[in-house]
Every structure is written in structure tokens, then in C-alpha cells.
Amino acid sequence: MPTTIHDAVTDSASNAAAWGDALLQRYATSGPRYTSYPTALSFNEAFTADDVTDALARSNDAQRALSLYVHIPFCRKICFYCACNKIATKNTDLAEPYLARLDREMALTAQHIDTRRPVKQLHWGGGTPTFLTLDQMSGLIDRLDARFGLSSDPERDYAIEIDPREADVLTLRHLQSLGFNRLSLGVQDLDPRVQRAINRSQPKVLTETLMDEAQRLGFRSLNLDLIYGLPQQTADSFAQTLHQVIELNPARLSVFNYAHLPERFPPQRRIRQEELPDADEKLTMLRVTIDMLTAAGYVHIGMDHFARPDDSLALAQQNGTLQRNFQGYSSHAQCDLIGLGVSAISRLEDSYAQNASVLADYETALDQGRLATRRGVRLSRDDRIRRDAIERLMCDMRLDLAALGERWQIDPQEYFKAALVALDQAQQDGLATLRHQVITVTPVGRLLVRHLAMAFDAHLPAQGNRRYSKII
Q1: pLDDT digit string (tens) for 168-197?
Q2: By residue range, what is the domain housing residue 385?
Q3: What is the pairing mode between strands 182-188 and 221-228?
Q4: Domain end residue (candidates: 340, 370, 400)
Q5: Would you say the pTM of this structure is higher than 0.90?
């Protein structure tokens, strides 16, 4: 690693030719993140709760393990960059009716689930799950266990998103007693100027104290979330944050590109456009991030995820068992995902289903004794084939067309003829290679793997890509 932060930024700038600024900027268009295929823009309201129960029955026939996602929408304070479904309040009593509705949703869902299927993965997201009191957390775990039967398998992956500003040592000990073994801490940036600009004051000591205690307690994996492209950030300032984060030595890092979409997310209107870094500065931040993290021994999983070589995420990529889902990359590929709570999305065998995103609509449905499904889609055979191709490309950074053809009994060269033509320019530009029916993503191509995946997307031409975030 360069000896100083300035060296790191200077070295990245001097490597501009290797990165090909003009090339990256040419490919820096908008496109899906492919946490699902088809993407949520293909979900439709003709898909109802009855379709969900049918999908759950087919899911039982497949007997895959279960993954549960629980959405907790509450936050005590709104961060200006946030694009999540959330409710700002400091009153934890307001969570009680929501938790009661969650239990109704669990009961309705569990009626259609073979609960002998193990729950290998659990994720609480938000919002801020640690908004809940310790007693409320215990009650929610008890309800999940009663409805679905939680696991004590040491290989389970039970994670929760934590806001370091409202969690302490007692919180971590309690979470461990509830069965959580992985934590994700929101950091975003350690520079006080940036924190003020995004309304998120979070001294480094808060994060450091929690990480020390998590490691002492033996949590299996710890993830930190960072964001580049925020107001007041520069390549130098973000390198300072990365340097401090590397010293904290988390097992995983998610380094997201901030998407400024104030027309869609009202809190972002509080961010001053003139304080945002320009495209060249953001590209330098991305270079610095990859240079510093790889020099520190992290594996670039792809897109915005990094992991220690011995972390389960890196091992899953090596084993070809990595999966994309609505939380990003997941090490548990062979699971059906059940989403619980407002706006939550389920992935069940051959279907996606999303709950109502408006809390009142979610509550009304459950009060009427029905699932809160608002929209979804059942995949065609073509959708499933293309999902397989896109997922393997984005997870493995390679796609074995011959193996894919054998799995689906198709001629991949003919089936994906248009996609391979679309990828020809990317091959010429050094983003990928195609040899012996294997597409391999190059190191630079990892930054643009969303663009490579778009070649296989049959829905995208009808949607356009204007409603998606920038690729880099």
C-alpha cells in the first residue's frame, strides 16, 4: 500500500491510462443492479396474494432451505442520502402495532410453508432494526421461531443492520443471545464535514467500540457500509476514511456509489447539488477504493462488495455458490427468500412478490386477514434461463455457456446470439473475454459488470435504462 494517503490518490491518478477514463465514462450509463431478474420494473399488480400462496406451494415441492428478510422501517433521524423505505420517529411504542402486523403476516405465510425446511439465513434490515427495544427484538425473534423454526446450526447466516449511533455493548450481547452471528454497521463516511452534510453525526469511536466488542464476542462476520459521491467528499478525504476503516479490519465492506435522485427520494432534496463531487472526482474515489482495499488484502467480489479471502462471501464466490438478492451478494444460494414487512420482496422458486410500500396499505391488508402483496411476477422459462446467466456472470465474474446450455437443454450460442453480439464491443474494449464458450470478466470489467449483464436482459429494451442508477 502507498505510504501516505496522498500517495494512494496520486498513484490512482497516475494509473488513469490503465483504467481508461474515457472508456469508463463511456460505459458509465444507467442500468439495473440485478438484485433480481426480471427487475422490479417488471413486477405488476395482476400478481396477487393468491399467486403468492401458489408460489409457496411450488416452493415446498422444491424443498429448498429458507431465507427470511424482515423489514423494520423506523429511524430516529433521517439521513439526507437515504433511499430506503423508512418512517422517522423517536417513539418506540409506534413499533408495537407494526410488530403485531408482522406476526399476522408470519402466521398467514407459515400456513403455506413446510416448516421442516431449515431457516439457514435471516436478515433484519430497514430503516434501522436497532430502533427496536431489546424486549421488542426478543419478541420478534420468538415470533419468527414460533412460526418458522429458527436454526442453531453454526453455519447459519443470521445478520442484522446496526446504526452505531444507537447501539452499545449491551445491544451486541443481546443480539448474540438472540442468535445473530453477523453484523452490518452503517458508516458511510468518517469525515465530520461529510457527516454534517448528510445529517449523520457519527464519531469514529462509536464504530470502533462496537467492532471491538463484536470481535470479542465472536461474531462470525462484520460488514461496514461506505458511500462515495456524497456532498463535501473528495478523493483525498475518502482515502482518509478508507485508511481508518482498513485499520478497523472488517471482514466485509460494501462501498456504494451514491445515486442522487431527489425527484424520487425527498430527503435527498436537502443535499446541495453544488456540494456533490463531479464525475471525475467520483471515478478517482472508485480507483482509490479498489487500490487501497486490494492492497490491504481484500477480494473485490464485484461491483461494490469486498471481503477478506477467508470470509464466507469470498469462499462462496470461489465455490460458485454466490447469489444476488435484494440485500446484495449472499453466500447462501440454495434458499428461497421470504420477505416480511412493508415493501419487502420475496423470491420463491419461479416468482417474485413485493408487499405494499405504503404502511397504511400494508396494515389494511393484514387487518383484513390477507397477505399484503401489492405486485410481483411469475417467471417464464426464458426469464429463468436469463436469470441464471445474469446471476452467474455477476456472482462468479464468469459465465460457462456450455454448462448453462446443459442445465437448460439449450444451444447457448444460438439462444444468446443477440447477447453475444451485444458483448462484442465490450470484448474489444477489454471488459470481458470469450474463449471456449466461457465469458470471463476482466478486472476493469468487474466495475462494469452491470453493463455486461444488461446484454442478457430481454426486458430492458421495453423499459429503457433511464429509471436506474448510474453504473459507476
Answers
A1: 999 999 999 999 999 999 999 999 999 999
A2: 381-461
A3: parallel
A4: 340
A5: yes
| 108 and 194 housed in the same domain | yes
How many whole angstroms separate alpha carbon 376 and alpha carbon 67?
18
Q: Is the peptide bond before 127 cis (omega within 30 degrees of 0)?
A: yes
Say if residues 44 and 375 touch (Cβ distance below 8 Å). Answer: yes
| Chain Cα centroid distance, residue 130 | 19
C-alpha cell at 291: 487500490
The span from the CA of 436 to the CA of 354, in Å, is 40
Here the CATH number for the domain that contains residue 385 is 1.10.10.920
Which secondary-structure segment (H or E) carries 120?
strand 119-126
pLDDT tens for 347-382 read 998 999 999 999 999 999 999 999 999 999 999 999
Do 407 and 335 belong to one domain?
A: no
Please count the structural domains in the chain.
2
435-464 pLDDT, tens digit per residue, is 999 999 998 888 889 999 999 999 998 886
Which of 284, 311, 340 terminates a domain? The answer is 340
Cell of 354: 413485493
* CA pair distance 284, 5, nearest whole angstrom: 13
Query: Residue 437, Cα to own-chain centre: how many angstroms?
Result: 30
Give me 457's grid cell: 436482459
Together in a domain, 73 and 163: yes
